[in-house]
Design brief:
Elements: H1 3-6, H2 9-19, H3 29-44, H4 51-60, H5 72-87, H6 95-104, H7 118-128, H8 135-149, H9 155-170, H10 179-198
Length: about 200
């Protein structure tokens, strides 16, 4: 089932409009489509225990995004809850689960193996799989994040915080929380992260 079939047309339009405002260099609907690609890989691999809830979390996890704000995830979760109540009231969706998954994305890099369940680990890893992309795609992702913060924080401060975040991921025993992503993508992600923290910016 495509997402245009998964969601009613009015909900689909409202979701796409949310991702278009404000314009973004990385956290746009192209990012969602990439995460959905990984969602489908999991669906065809280890599988999801709550596929409907995870899919909605993927669709809405960056619906509200303003670089530098601390409440993007909470506001995205609220929008998901609102839209589900409005357009999908009879689908039997665990709305609290959708909101919880979205809110977990605020904690990327700080969660450990015992902090989340199986579906949550796989969902978070889908969102972080960009770290293991080919070199050109990773570089485009890194430029996109930089562009989103341009003019919002001093360049030196952004570089400091960005490098700190990437180094924090690199020193972790596991970058990905699930065994499935860890075994497939860890080595590729470490190559990209080492390059990102050592090259001049």
């Amino acid at each position: 089932m495509s997402d245009s079939e998964f969601l009613p047309p009015a909900q689909w339009d409202a979701l796409r409009e949310a991702y278009a405002t404000p314009p973004r260099a990385y956290h746009d609907f192209a990012h969602v489509e990439e995460v959905l690609r990984h969602y489908d890989e999991v669906a065809n691999g280890p599988g999801w225990e709550q596929p409907q809830e995870v899919r909605l979390a993927v669709l809405y996890h960056d619906a509200i995004y303003e670089a530098g704000r601390k409440d993007n995830e909470a506001r995205s979760a609220e929008l998901a809850v609102e839209h589900i109540a409005r357009w999908l009231p009879d689908r039997g969706i665990d709305v609290a689960r959708v909101a919880k998954l979205i809110n977990l994305t605020a904690r990327h890099g700080s969660l450990g193996l015992g902090d989340v369940d199986r579906d949550a680990a796989l969902f978070l890893d889908c969102d972080m799989a960009i770290l293991a992309a080919d070199a050109a795609t990773f570089a485009a992702y890194d430029r996109g994040i930089t562009a989103e913060y341009r003019g919002l924080v001093p360049a030196w401060l952004f570089k400091l915080n960005r490098r700190r975040f990437l180094k924090g991921l690199l020193v972790k025993e596991r970058i990905f929380l699930s065994d499935w992503f860890h075994e497939r993508l860890d080595a590729k992600a470490r190559i990209n992260l080492r390059r990102a923290v050592t090259e001049k910016r």
